[in-house]
Structure formats: structure tokens, C-alpha cells
Design brief:
about 30% helix; 2 domains; Asparagine synthetase B; single chain; globular; 12 helices; about 400 residues; Alpha-Beta Plaits
Length: about 400
């Protein structure tokens, strides 16, 4: 491409027509931040584009990674920024200041494709560290700006896989490993160790951390926090009976997002509570979409950042926890994406103390009904995935300058 001698900025367009690899564009943005370069995130401008000071290294990196870019003059960049400032347009420019340090809560041995977030981080070439119970309990989360939780069960019920998988070698081995880890950490039950971990994660967020959770890590996290005074586990999970009347002993004041839910007591039922709407869904795959809510970029920059996309309609996808019952979402939690046909929330966000959390229902945005043992998703086939873009929006969110994070 011809480069003007007056060129001084690289624009990464993020609309459907101009960008051939949206996911790797986030990786380029992170790469720039990691090298001490500030980036302007142009909310609602060409799908949430990125404006980065020009350099030969940056252009070369875009070419290597297959990211579409435009080299523009200083005057053109100023013109774009001036147009964005106009009160008549729903756009805003947010400065991204530094690359967030990313931690993924996952046990040793989990392959990157077991988890949509590690899958897209790997594809986008964004670095992350793995942490698990020992690191969390040792306060190592303080080293990180952003924490991801995926299909973890914080209640000590091993994902409620008991009915279908209790005789399989992997289930037996994972249960044994979890019990050994809990013992090594000084706990007599997995449910107690997981509660302690959940409470440490809660403290991390309250202190100013950013937490993103998907699938069953969303509802099981809140359930564990609410059940801190009672035993909700049946004997096949922890060796003794659950506490009678435990439903009435839940403390919804402890939770991040959910309230007034009823726990599923049957250990043979693959469901934690009434929060999840997987079993209540009545919509064919070809009509399963959810809509991203529209926010004011100037007055509500946080939800606007989290919802940046090249389309407002996102393909639905399922998981152990697919979606959330709106009546059981706390009033101070924002619904970012919803399926109006089913009356369900898919993507929600809130504040806890000085920190933030986002819960995203489902397992894999490009695998409609992921099952145990299914082959991994090849993101090379989905470089423009709107569902995966939502994950990457959350990863860049902590990089935004602090005044833009006020509500």
C-alpha cells in the first residue's frame, strides 16, 4: 500500500466491511499498549475502531497478523476525533493507557481450547498467566488487572456431572485431584476450599479488580458466596448429608449479580439453580440470536466499551449455564445483551466495591452446543466472530483511563 510521508496514525477499522480479522485486531491493540503506546478506542466509529500512532513496526505487525489497517494523516485523525466529539453523534474516544495483566483461573492440564477465553487470547496473541486455588489463596491475584473464570463449579458439586459421568475415569480422577488439592490447602471439603477461593476473588474485585466469567462460573460463583453459612452438597459430593432447609439459609446479600434463586437439590439434575434458563429455552438454533443494548457512548462509556461490535445481533450459543433469568438479576446490574424472544439475559455487567464484573452466558460463541469431548473450535474459521469480540472488549476495558470508568 502507498504510504504518505505525512501519515502519522494507523486506524484499525472494526466494521464488518473493512476488517478481515477483528479478533487479531484486539491483539494488535494489546501489542501496542504493551510497548508503552497509548491507543484511542473510537466507540461506535466504524464498529469500535482503534487509532494508534503510526510506525513501521506497527504496519509490519498488522501485515504479519493479517489485520486490516489504514494509514491516515495527522489532519485526517484530528478530523475523525473532532467529528466524534460532536454532541449530535453517539460516539466517543476513550484513551487506552496500558496493557492489562491478565490471569485465567484454570486447573493445570486444561488445554486452551477447553475455554473460549483462553482460545481467543491464544488466537489474538494476547499473553496471560494461569492461576488456580493455591495462587488465589496466596493473594497472587493482586498481581493482575483482569481475571477470567470459566466453567468452574465453586459449589463443590463437580459441575453436577454426577448422573452422566460418575463412572468415567476422567470424572473419578478430577474428583480425586480436587479433594487432594483441598486437603493440601488445609480444607476438609472441596466445597469449603472453593468457597474460600470465591471469597478471595470477591475481595479482589471489591478492591478494584476486573472479573469476567462465563458459563457455570457465573451462577456457581454467586451460589457459593450465598451458601457460606450452610452445606448444600449431597453425600456423593462431600461424604455427608446437606444441611436441612439450606435454601432458607442462603444470603443473597453476598452475591454479585443474582438474587431470590432456588437451588436444584437433585444431584442427578445437570443444573445448579433457577438462575440458568437452559432447560426453559424454546427456540430453534437457526433463530437463536441475542441483541446488544444500545448505550450513549458519551454518557455511558463503560457499557458502550463492553458492547462494541460490528453488529448488534449476535448468534446464540449454549452451555451448562446458557442465560440468566431477568427476575433473579439484581436491580443494580446492567443487562448488556438479551434474547427478547425467550425473555432472557445473555450478557450482564455490574460494579462491586471499587471493581467490575461481567457475566456472559454460554460456553463457546462459535460452538452452539458444546459437549464434553467435542473437538476444539478453530478460530481461523471465525476471525470476525461478534460473540468472541465481546470477550475481547472486556479484556481491553481495564486499559481505559480511569475517568472513563466512573459511572
Amino acid at each position: 500500500m502507498a504510504i504518505s510521508v505525512k501519515a502519522s496514525f494507523v486506524l484499525l477499522p472494526m466494521d464488518a466491511k473493512s476488517q478481515k480479522d477483528h479478533l487479531k485486531a484486539y491483539g494488535i491493540t494489546y501489542w501496542s499498549l504493551d510497548r508503552g503506546q497509548k491507543v484511542q478506542w473510537l466507540l461506535n466509529y466504524k464498529g469500535g475502531s482503534f487509532l494508534i500512532p503510526d510506525s513501521e513496526k506497527l504496519r509490519k505487525e498488522c501485515t504479519i497478523r493479517g489485520v486490516s489497517y489504514e494509514v491516515i494523516s495527522n489532519a485526517k485523525a484530528n478530523s475523525i476525533l473532532e467529528s466524534i466529539e460532536s454532541p449530535s453523534v453517539n460516539q466517543e474516544s476513550v484513551t487506552l493507557e496500558k496493557a492489562p495483566r491478565i490471569a485465567v483461573y484454570t486447573p493445570d492440564g486444561n488445554a486452551p481450547w477447553d475455554d473460549a477465553v483462553t482460545l481467543v487470547l491464544t488466537y489474538a496473541e494476547i499473553p496471560y498467566d494461569k492461576v488456580y486455588d493455591k495462587e488465589v489463596l496466596n493473594d497472587e491475584l493482586l498481581l493482575y488487572d483482569w481475571l477470567h473464570l470459566h466453567h468452574e463449579d465453586f459449589t463443590g458439586q463437580y459441575g453436577k456431572f454426577y448422573r452422566a459421568y460418575r463412572a468415567t475415569p476422567w470424572y473419578i480422577e478430577e474428583k480425586k485431584q480436587a479433594e487432594n488439592l483441598a486437603t493440601s490447602l488445609g480444607f476438609d471439603k472441596v466445597s469449603k476450599s472453593k468457597l474460600a477461593v470465591a471469597q478471595k476473588i470477591r475481595d479482589y474485585v471489591v478492591g478494584g479488580g476486573f472479573m469476567f466469567a462465563m458459563c457455570s462460573a457465573t451462577d456457581s460463583f454467586d451460589i457459593a458466596l450465598s451458601a457460606y453459612l450452610t452445606d448444600i452438597c449431597e453425600p456423593m459430593f462431600d461424604g455427608d448429608a446437606s444441611e436441612p432447609g439450606y435454601q432458607n439459609k442462603l444470603d443473597f446479600g453476598q452475591t454479585f449479580a443474582f438474587k431470590d434463586y432456588t437451588l436444584v437439590k437433585d444431584p442427578n439434575t445437570y443444573e445448579f439453580s433457577s438462575i440458568d434458563m437452559t432447560e426453559k429455552r424454546n427456540i430453534p438454533k437457526e433463530k437463536d440470536y441475542f441483541t446488544l443494548m444500545d448505550f450513549s457512548a458519551k454518557w455511558d462509556p463503560i457499557p458502550s466499551m463492553l458492547n462494541q461490535n460490528h453488529t448488534a445481533i449476535v448468534k446464540g450459543f449454549m452451555g451448562q449455564t446458557t442465560s440468566f433469568e431477568p427476575s433473579q438479576i439484581k436491580s443494580n446490574v446492567l443487562i448488556l445483551g438479551e434474547n427478547k424472544v425467550n425473555g432472557e439475559a445473555r450478557y450482564i455487567h455490574g460494579i462491586k466495591g471499587k471493581g467490575f464484573f461481567t457475566f456472559y452466558g454460554g460456553h463457546d460463541p462459535e460452538d452452539y452446543q458444546h459437549r464434553v469431548g467435542d473437538p476444539k473450535t478453530e478460530l481461523e474459521l471465525h476471525p470476525t466472530s461478534p460473540g468472541y469480540r465481546l470477550i475481547l472488549n472486556n479484556i481491553l476495558f481495564p486499559a481505559a483511563e480511569k475517568e472513563k470508568q466512573k459511572t
